[in-house]
Amino acid sequence: MKSTAPSNRVRLEKVVSETQPVAMLRQEPAELSERLPLDFQAGYDDLDRLVFAVLPVGDRQVVLVRHNNAPEPGTLICVAPDEAEVETILLESAQTLKLSYPDSFTWVHPNFERLVRQGVSVRK
Q1: Is the pLDDT of residue 107 over 70?
Q2: Which residues are CB-contacts of 13 (< 8 A; sequence separation ≥ 6)?
Q3: Is the pLDDT of residue 27 over 90?
Q4: What φ, ψ does residue 23 adopt, rounded to 5°?
């Protein structure tokens, strides 16, 4: 099978080995880049072409992903599959991006949705 990925796009898994989508932000990558100097790169994965940026959050990182053909507007927040403090990362991501929490989220993974809707505060 011949690859259809253009040479200027990078496979997401080559930059970040594994990610798990945990939430969707209302904002598109361009809007997020206006708030913070983010370097969104052209890429692709098994689903689609995309743009992504790595966002440092405390001593961890999240990956912000926007698939080109996603049916809804917004940007995914993805974390490592073994991340234990997803709620904290979501709160800290919103703070880092200067977004209101939880109003800036349009979707949260069902395992964490209840805590986000309650506006759980960041643990110190």
Answers
A1: yes
A2: 45
A3: yes
A4: -165, 160
